[in-house]
Amino acid sequence: MSFNELDFCMPSPKNATDDESSRMCSKGTEERFADALRGSNHYIIPLEPDETMNSFDNFLSESSPEEAAVEEPVVKKIPDLSQRKDVLFKSIFRSVKKYYTKLFKESSDFYKHKSEKAKKANVKACVKNFIQKDLLFLNGSEGFHSVEIDELCEFMSRIIAPKSCTKSYTTYSCKKYINLLYKCIYNYNERNAAKLYTSEVMKHIFFFCLREENLEKMVQEDPNLARNSKLIKEKAKEVLDGFRSI
User: Fold this and answer.
1) Is the Cα dihedral 192, 193, 199, 202 positive or negative?
2) Could you tell me if 9 and 28 are in contact, meaning their C-beta atoms sit under 8 angstroms apart?
3) Which pTM does this prediction carry?
4) Rounded to an integer, what distance in angstroms lies between the CA atom of residue 193 and that of residue 245?
5) What highest taxon heads this organism's lineage (predicted)?
6) Structural contact between residues 193 and 184, judged by C-beta atoms closer than 8 angstroms
């Protein structure tokens, strides 16, 4: 028997009241509906508590939207450079270059020249004026012998504005020590540093830059140096000791 064949209302007896007829109709409908289900292939399966739904409810209760939105603050770790001596020394050599470049930009009119040709024509004159006026190199300092101003200018020009210098070097000494300086900046090793320490001109340049008051200012202005200020100052002293030992 199919559902379409069901007669959902039994005929009521003639003498039955309206309420009785309604009850009889309802009862007859239920009996016929049950008979139809027993004769069909459709079954009603009683629902049991679902563990999956319970797990999902627990998940919702454990991670509410308010809790999910709250994120723990990310604490930026300060890198420990105590075992990375090469990184510390590279930072110091790079800071020497940055120190002189910044001073030169602040005090010289070199960068008023727009064309590269004009810069190449004026770089040595501007650097010489910068040394004599702002750095007071010629006054001498600890352990310095006399350094020729022209040689000092060539070294400093290639530290401050290497792109504006001509490719040809005036002296082999300048080419040798400038190359060693850039090797120490980008790929430090003790052998190259030891060779650099033999230059009297570089000694001049480093001693002026790494004086205590200058070094303190450099460290405070550079966040990378400030995070490891104690180690940087220790290694800067080792650099100066390297120049003193020659």
Assistant:
1) positive
2) yes
3) 0.63
4) 12
5) Eukaryota
6) yes
Q: Are the C-beta atoms of residues 80 and 101 closer than 8 Å to each other?
A: no
pLDDT band for 3, please (50, 70, 90 cuts).
Answer: very low
- Contacts of 125 by beta carbon, 8 Å cutoff, 6+ apart: none
Per-residue pLDDT tens digits for 42-90:
444 554 555 545 554 554 455 455 554 555 565 555 555 556 889 999 9
- Residue 204: Cβ within 10 Å count: 25
Q: If we measure between CA atoms, which residue out of 191, 235, 230 comes closest to residue 96?
A: 235
H/E stretch holding 138: none
**Contacts of range 9-18, beta carbons closer than 8 Å, 24 or more positions apart:** none
Dihedral in degrees, nearest 10, Cα atoms 100, 101, 106, 107: 60
Cβ atoms of residues 171 and 178 within 8 Å: no
Q: 119 is written with which tokens?
A: 């810069």
> Residue 7: its pLDDT value, please?
46
Amino acid, single-letter form, for residue 235: K
What's phi and psi for 99, nearest 5 deg? -60, -50
Pairwise CA distance, residues 204 & 144, whole Å? 7
The CA R_g of the chain, rounded to the nearest whole Å, is 44
HSE-CB at 234 with a 13 A cutoff on CA atoms is 8
Residue 18 — very low, low, confident or very high, per pLDDT cuts 50/70/90? low
82 CB burial (10 A radius; 0-12, 13-18, 19+) = exposed
Q: How far apart are CA 154 and CA 168, in angstroms?
A: 11
Instruction: Tell which residue, 154, 157, 152, has the closest CA to residue 136.
Output: 152
